[in-house]
Amino acid sequence: MQDIDMGAVATQVLWASFALAMVFGAIAQRTHFCTMGAVADIVNIGDWSRMRMWVLAMGTAMLGFNAMVALGWVDAGKSLYGGPRFIWLSNAVGGLLFGFGMVLASGCGSKTLVRIGGGNLKSLVVFIVLGLAAFATLKGITGVMRVATVDRVAVELASAQDLPTLASRTFGLAKPQAALLLGALVGGALVLWSLLRAEGRTRDVLLGGLGIGAVIAAMWWVSGRLGFVAEDPNTLQEAFVATNSQRMESLSFVAPVAYTLDWLLFFSDKSKVLTLGIVSTVGVVLGSALVALATRSFRWEGFANAEDTANHVVGATLMGVGGITAMGCTVGQGLSGVSTLALGSFVALAGIIGGAVLAIRYQVWRLERMA
Q: Mind listing the pLDDT tens digit for each residue in 314-345?
């Protein structure tokens, strides 16, 4: 067996992840990429521009990921989203909580990091509360509740839950062919829909959609190809280096926020090491800050009043609990997960959008009552 320097592999994965996360943060800051904003634009003013940007990113990531599956580089079943246990109720309820919370908190996990880079102190509070709530739902009191309730409702599949694997078992197709076909059909349809109207072909929409979708796909390559070791010399088993889940990962911004807080709080503990998620969290903030400073859009911003503070704290808590329960956020499930064509990711995505629409309607109702 060839000797493998696991430390060198980890270093390569961490630097590549950090660089890609900086690109993500820079693009998101420059183009105002925001899922909550996309849903709010549609509900409030009927503007679909940012939704087309998000869908374009989704389609681009899907095309990229499934092309890599067809080449034999990655396998959706080895990701966080593609396992055989289909926890549909957790995906739905968690997505609903996350979607509602992100409206109260003025943005999802990725938008929170982008806003921190732009000088938003409200988002710094959201970051801390989200991280604490997420960690409690991973290993604490809300985690016990999650495992004892919604996580118990599941469908045990005979194979991985991604559509190419299910199609290959049902129709007898080779999995690479199924991935290439379904990835092209679904991803291509999303890209085509995004570009059909002029509002989907503006410079910002193209930069945000194509750029962020490409970053998601590139992160899959970093984790699933660059960071994959067929036989770890320490365990003699296959390993995905520098990931918290010990599986293939792409960008997500709920659990990684919790792990970032954990790393900062217990820095002197030698067992706390940098991971793809932690460096990605820092990279998004830095990438956003560089663009904000370069464009002179950086400015300090705080809470308007006690109600504003309460909304953001409650929203951050819901995002932390919901994001872990759903196994991802608007980026983790809505881009990374959906790009694998996993069933649970589509359920979580529907829950997130539904929760966001409910929260926006709630805010409109409150404003009308106050008037």
A: 999 999 999 999 999 999 999 999 999 999 99
Choose among 56, 26, 53: nearest CA to 41.
Answer: 53
Strand partners, 85: 156
Q: Is 229 helix (H, G, I), strand (E, B) or coil?
A: strand
Residue 264 tokens, joined: 């900062």
List the beta bridge partners of residue 120: 301
> Residue 30 in 3-state DSSP?
helix
Helix 6-31 × helix 203-221 angle, to 10° = 170
Place of tokens 């109207």: 197
Return the exposure string of 84-119: e unless at least 16 CB atoms fall within 10 Å of the residue's CB, then b: eebbbbbbbbbbbbbbbbbbbbbbbbbbbbbbbbbb
Percent of the chain at pLDDT > 70 equals 99
Note the pLDDT tens digit of each residue in 93-116.
Answer: 999 999 999 999 999 999 999 999
User: Strand, coil or helix: what is 269?
Assistant: coil
Q: For residues 190 and 58, is the Cβ–Cβ distance under 8 A?
A: yes
Amino acid, res. 90:
S
For helices 35-45 and 49-70, the axis angle rounded to 10 degrees is 140
- The model carries a pTM of 0.95
CB-side neighbour CA atoms (13 Å) of 149: 12
Nearest CA to 21 out of 184, 218, 308 is that of 218
Per-residue CA distances from 315 to 96, 126, 238, 350 (Å): 12, 8, 39, 19
Q: Is the pLDDT of residue 2 over 90?
A: no
Determine the average pLDDT of the residues in 7-22: 96
CA R_g for the chain: 20
Confidence (pLDDT) at 1:
39
